[in-house]
């Protein structure tokens, strides 16, 4: 198909398609004559992926470009691609230095060890966890840290469900989309369900307001 | 103690204390002579609460004012106060109208019913859930919705742990602080732990990258 048809099929405007081509987010079409190229179903799929990552995943064009390069690189294993997608949607908040940081680090290492998790100290989420745990101690709310084993158990329950969905796909393009969107939208689902569950547990314990 | 001492004790600058007094976030001190007032330990505690809600909870002065008025109102039950605190840190994203919204609503009602949760359709988190579930269908990712029962189970596990911490406090000021900070910081802990759990489940399934 020509670029005009590609645009109609995907709802992506022609100038945007040209921009994606220049940035390497979309592979070039097969040249047919001067200034004309032919596009196939792989271009439709790639365009849909790029749009989903940009609009729903909130990823920058640079980040999508990096993912797309890995997607097309046969040297990158599926598992590695999955890890890269996950890192793109993982915030890293460095803990502020303070007396409680070292203790938080030890507590988190113990928590990981108890669940049989590998050394995670290089993962950006590890830094975030240490920071929040140290802040809770700073604020005199170390009692909240007693819930961490349940939090970790719940996280693993969810991760197993997440990986089941990913494992059933078997298509790199689709897998990458699910990892990025599933991670982000899953966060929203999870925190919203936590609110409903809290309201229900409170209702069960204390009765109606 | 005088205002200068209250400021030293809490680290809150005198102009900020005066602002909080004007806004009703801090009850007035006991008048001693002209333009002088005496402040007690209840003022120290209240100031710490206001700072924690503003700095760590990200609540506006108006929102804190509302919570503080409820805190001082003996007509408001502990459970009601807890619910109000939770609502202050719950985003409500209305779903965009679309063909999948009604189906998402039914799926969520079923999910709640299976867990024995009460009708939650008035809760702001309910609207957010319907919106995300409908978006996943719009994007052709309805397969992800198959994980929702595990998400809800995990959410309940966490809510039980959250309520255990809250139930052990027995002090309204402290409870409100824990509900607001615990809800927000708990979200961060949970989503970060989910990342570590995903990395570990992937490692277990597919081996090192």
Automatic annotation (TrEMBL), chains A, B:
<dbReference type="InterPro" id="IPR009061">
    <property type="entry name" value="DNA-bd_dom_put_sf"/>
</dbReference>
<keyword id="KW-0238">DNA-binding</keyword>
<dbReference type="GO" id="GO:0003677">
    <property type="term" value="F:DNA binding"/>
</dbReference>
<protein>
    <submittedName>
        <fullName>MerR family transcriptional regulator</fullName>
    </submittedName>
</protein>
<dbReference type="Pfam" id="PF13411">
    <property type="entry name" value="MerR_1"/>
</dbReference>
<dbReference type="InterPro" id="IPR047057">
    <property type="entry name" value="MerR_fam"/>
</dbReference>
<dbReference type="GO" id="GO:0003700">
    <property type="term" value="F:DNA-binding transcription factor activity"/>
</dbReference>
<dbReference type="InterPro" id="IPR000551">
    <property type="entry name" value="MerR-type_HTH_dom"/>
</dbReference>
<feature type="domain" description="HTH merR-type">
    <location>
        <begin position="1"/>
        <end position="70"/>
    </location>
</feature>
